[in-house]
């Protein structure tokens, strides 16, 4: 499915939050974990106003996914990339990823780092990102290890 990718607006923050929650929940994490991640998964109008947030929109104007770029200068980070579960597998994630890398390149980045959900590592590898390490967080007293990935930008984009 071909989508249009546009800069997100503060008015879309509620919809983006809803997508982030439903996409994360798709992996079957316990609801108390989703609750612990509530802040991370909440997209505020202010966040949209002050960050590089882009939304994928279908022909009916429905937002199907979004991404946010963080960082600055030559090193950017992919802070969010979520697709609504009913649209998984339709190429929306790929279009968002490619847009994000093109945008990072336009902003002068040479590398984009991603702390991936373990279930999304295969997607990012498919997109050409490499696993370069891991990041460990504590969750309910236990270590949670996330793959740290990198996408290297060149001038061919
Ligand atoms: C991961 C995610 C963004 C992928 O989006 P999507 O729209 O389903 O992906 P696409 O349809 O564009 O898939 C592009 C390619 O990646 C592959 N792919 C998609 N998800 C994959 C996964 N989890 N593991 C391995 N490969 C995957 C597809 O098979 C497709 O391959 P192809 O090039 O051979 O056709 C989406 O599933 C999602 O939002 N997941 C939940 C939230 C999440 O974990 N986001 C990442 C936060 S770090």
Structure report:
With 157 residues, the protein is an alpha+beta fold. It has one domain: Aminopeptidase. It is built from 6 helices and 7 strands, in the order βααααβββαβαββ. It has helices spanning 13-26, 31-36, 38-41, 45-50, 92-106, 121-126, and strands at 4-7, 52-57, 63-72, 75-83, 111-115, 130-139, 142-152. It has a 7-stranded mixed beta sheet with strand order 1-2-3-4-5-7-6. Strand 4 (75-83), helix 5 and strand 5 (111-115) form a beta-alpha-beta unit. It is globular and about 45 Å long. The chain starts with a strand and ends in a 5-residue tail after the last strand. The mean pLDDT is 95. The chain binds coenzyme A. Coenzyme A binds next to helix 1, strand 4, helix 5 and helix 6.
């Amino acid at each position: 499915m071909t989508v249009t990718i546009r800069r997100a607006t503060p008015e879309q923050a509620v919809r983006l939050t809803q997508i982030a929650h439903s996409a994360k929940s798709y992996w079957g994490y316990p609801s108390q974990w989703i609750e612990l991640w509530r802040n991370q998964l909440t997209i505020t109008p202010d966040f949209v106003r002050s960050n590089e947030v882009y939304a994928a929109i279908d022909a009916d104007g429905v937002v199907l996914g979004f991404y946010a770029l963080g960082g600055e200068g030559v090193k950017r980070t992919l802070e969010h990339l979520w697709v609504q579960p009913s649209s998984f597998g339709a190429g929306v994630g790929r279009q968002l990823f490619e847009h994000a890398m093109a945008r990072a390149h336009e902003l002068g980045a040479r590398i984009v780092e991603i702390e991936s959900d373990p279930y999304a590592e295969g997607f990012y590898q498919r997109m050409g990102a490499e696993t370069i390490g891991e990041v460990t967080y504590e969750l309910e007293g236990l270590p949670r290890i996330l793959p740290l990935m990198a996408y290297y930008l060149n001038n061919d984009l």
